[in-house]
Amino acid sequence: MQGVGDVGGRPRKFHDEERLGDDVPETAHQISTDSWFQAGFVLTTGVNSVYVLGYSGTIMVPLGWIGGVVGLILATAISLYANTLVAKLHEFGGKRHIRYRDLAGYIYGKNAYRITWALQYVNLFMINIGYIILAGSALKAVYHLFRDDHVMKLPYFIAIAGVVCALFAIATPHLSALRIWLGFSTFLSLVYIIVACVLSAKNGIDSPPRDYSISGSTWSRIFTTIGAAANLVFAFNTGMLPEIQATVRKPAVKNMLKALYFQFTVGVLPMYAVTFIGYWAYGSSTSTYLLNSVKGPVWLKAFANISAFLQSVIALHIFASPTYEYLDTKFGITGSPFAIKNLSFRLAARGGYLAISTLVAALLPFLGDFESLTGALSTFPLTFILANHMYLVANKNKLTSLQKLWHWLNVCFFGLMSVAAAVSALRLIAVDSKTYSLFADL
C-alpha cells in the first residue's frame, strides 16, 4: 500500500512497511490496552522523574528569574504543540504507526526509517544512563547521611543501581505491565518533590537574602544559556511518543491528546514547584541535585533520596521499553511473560543492555555534558524538527500558506538551536574533560 500526497505540484508517495522490510504493526508487546489516564501517568512520570531535582541548578541558575520562568512556560507550550503534531499523525494513511521510526519511514522512506531509529535509540540510551547515575547518586547521598567516610564511592552505588534496574526490567515484561508501578512512581515523585520543596522553603525563610545574579563572562553566559535552553526542552519530551501512544485504546489520537493535556497541565505543576522554590531558597549557589542543598532532619532527607532512587528504577524502564520491545519482537518472544524461556531471554537481553549502560554510567559519571550533546543531535531533531516537517509533508494539501510558513519557521529555528546546542555541549565536554577522570567519585 502507498499513500499519495502532493509536494511542489508532483505526487508524493508514502512508503509502506513492506518496503522497509519490517513487519508492522506486529509486536511482541501489548498495544491498544491502556486508558488515556494510564498513558498520562506514563508521560507525567517522565516529567517528574529525578531529573527535576536538577532543574533549579541547570535551568534557573544560568537563566535567572526572568529567563528561567519565561523559558519554562515557553518550553511547556512549544513541547505540547510539537507532541500534539506527532500524536495526530499516529493513524496517518489509515493505519497505526506504533513506533517513531515506522511513522518517519512511512512518510520519507527507508533511509529516514534507519536514521530516526538510530537517533531515537541513542537518545533513550543516554537518558537511561542518566537515570542510573542519578539512582547511584541518590544511594550515595543516603550513605553519606549516616557514614562520613569514602569507603563506598559513586561507581559502587551506580553498580548497585544497575543490578536493581535489571531485576525490575526482567520482572516487568512490557510498558503496559507497569500499571500499579505508575501509582508507586507518582507517590515516590511526590515524596522527594514535597520534601525538597518544604525543606527548601524553610531554608529560604531562615536564610539571609540570596544572590540571583548570573555569573561568568559574556561568552561563558552565552554557552550556558544555550545549554539551559537544551535542558528546557529535555524536561518535557520523551522522544518516544508513538511507542507510548501504541499502548492507548482506540480512538488512539483522541485519547493520546487527553493524556498530553494531562501531562502539560496537572503533570507539570510539581516540576514547576520544585524548580522555582529550590532556586528561590538558594539562589545562584543551588546544587545540580537539589537534595544536596537542603538542610533538615536526616531521616527525612534519607526518605527523599531512597524515593528518588526507586523512582529512577521505574522511570528508566519507561525509556528503555522501546529497546525491550525491539528485542522481544525480533526474537519472537511470545506467550506467558513468566515462562522459563521468556524469563531467560529477558535475563540475557535486558541484563546485557543494562550491564553496558551501567558500565558507561560508572565510567563517565559526568555524563551530563554528553547528554547535552545527545540532546542537541537527537532530542531537538526528533521532537521539534521532525515533528513539524512530518506534519507539513503529511498535511501539505490541507494547510494554508501561513500555516506552511509557520512549520518551516519551526524547522529552521530548531535546526539552528540544535547546531548551537551541539557547539555548546562540545565546549563543555572539552572543559570538563580536564577536570574529571574515568570512574570519578563525584
Termini separation: 54 Å
Write the H/E string, N to C. EEHHHHHHHHHHHHHHH
CATH-defined superfamily: Amino acid/polyamine transporter I
Helix percent reads: 55-70%
How many individual helices?
A: 15
Layout: helices, strands, pairs:
Layout: E1 4-7, E2 10-13, H1 17-20, H2 36-47, H3 55-88, H4 100-108, H5 110-146, H6 154-171, H7 179-206, H8 218-234, H9 241-245, H10 252-263, H11 269-282, H12 298-330, H13 340-363, H14 368-394, H15 401-432
Antiparallel strand pairs: 1-2
Notes on the protein architecture:
The chain has 442 residues and is mainly α. It has a single domain, classed as Amino acid/polyamine transporter I (Up-down Bundle). The protein contains 15 helices and two strands. The protein has helices spanning 17-20, 36-47, 55-88, 100-108, 110-146, 154-171, 179-206, 218-234, 241-245, 252-263, 269-282, 298-330, 340-363, 368-394, 401-432; strands at 4-7, 10-13. Strands 1-2 form a two-stranded antiparallel ribbon. Helix 2 runs parallel beside helix 7 and helix 3 (55-88) packs parallel to helix 14 (368-394). The radius of gyration is 22 Å and the shape is globular. The chain starts with a strand and ends in a 10-residue tail after the last helix. Residues 1-11 and 17-24 have low confidence and may be disordered.
Task: Give a brief description.
The chain has 442 residues and is mainly α.
Which features would summarize this protein structure in a list?
15 helices, Amino acid/polyamine transporter I, membrane, 442 residues, 69% helix, amino-acid transport, transport, mainly alpha, AA_transpt_TM, two-stranded antiparallel sheet, Amino acid transporter transmembrane domain-containing protein, globular
